[in-house]
Write a structure and sequence with these properties.
The structure is a homodimer. Chain A has about 130 residues and is of the alpha+beta class. Chain A contains five helices and five strands. Chain A has helices spanning about 5-15, 25-35, 40-55, 100-110, 125-130, and strands spanning about 60-65, 65-70, 80, 85-90, 110-120. The longest helix of chain A is centred in the middle third of the chain and has 13 residues, at about 40-55. The structure holds a DNA duplex (25 and 25 nucleotides).
Chain lengths: ~130, ~130
Amino acid sequence: MPPKHSHKRDSIAEVICSSKAHPSADTVYAVLRESYPSISLATVYRNISQLRADGVIKSVGVVEGVERYDGDLSDHPHFVCESCGAVIDIEPQDALGNSSDEQIAEKYNVEVTGRHVVYYGRCGNCREKNK
Amino acid sequence: MPPKHSHKRDSIAEVICSSKAHPSADTVYAVLRESYPSISLATVYRNISQLRADGVIKSVGVVEGVERYDGDLSDHPHFVCESCGAVIDIEPQDALGNSSDEQIAEKYNVEVTGRHVVYYGRCGNCREKNK
DNA sequence: TTAGGTGCAAACCCTTTGCAGCAAG
DNA sequence: CTTGCTGCAAAGGGTTTGCACCTAA
C-alpha cells in the first residue's frame, strides 16, 4: 500500500527546512505546539528519525548535548558558537583551503578559535564484514 | 598552595593520550579498572572534565551518543565509521582541498560517504555581549 | 479493515552532582 | 588543618520505546 501521509511529519520537515538556525527536536516541538497544541515530543523525535532515514533532513551534530538538524542536504561547513550554541552556515567556497580564519571571521562576523574536519563513511573493518 | 597531584588523573590522561582510538569515558573507565579496581566512573568524568579545562586533552565530538576524546591537541581531520563508530585520525595534509575522497579512501582503507567542516568560536551576538 | 501515526508515560543511557570519607601538602 | 580527590548513589536531561488509541487509505 502507498505510504501514508502525515500532516505533522510535513510540518516538522517544514520547520527544519525553512529555518536557518539548525533547530533541535525540542525547538521544533516548541514551534509546532502553536499549530498542534497536543503534539508530543515523542512524535517529533520519531518523525525526525524517519525524515533522516528518508534523506529529507540531516543532522549537523550535537551541540551542548543536543542534536541539531539541517534541511539543507548539501555538504557545507558550519560555524558553532561556543558561547550560545548558535549554528551558522558557512558557504562551501569558504571552506578550509579556500579561505583563512580571518576571512571567515570578517565575512560572518565571528571569531574563529578552532576548526574541525570530519569525514564519514565505513572503515576498513566494517567493509570487510560486508556490513 | 600548589596544585595537588592525582595518580588517577595522570592515568586517565595517559590512557587517552596513548590511545589512537579516541576513547570514551566508559572506555577509559574499563581500562583503568584493571589498575584501579575500585575506581569510579564519576572520577573518570570529573578528571576528563578537568583535563579538558587544563588543555591536556580535547573532545573530538559525540559519536553514537557518546563523547570521544583525543590527546592529540593538534587541529586535524577525523574519519568516523558510521557502522561501528570507530574514529580514525586523518593527516592534516589530507584535509579538504588537498585531497579527494578517493585519495582518502585508498590511503586510509575507508569508504567516504560524507564530510563536514566545522569552525568553532564566538558568534557576532556573543562578541557584542563581551561574553 | 489495516498498516501506520500519535500521545502518554516510563524506560534508557550518558553524564553530572551531593555527600561523606580519604589523602596529600 | 585544609583543600582537593574519590566512591557511591541519586539526580539530570536528551532521546527512545511500549502500549493503547486513533487516522488515513
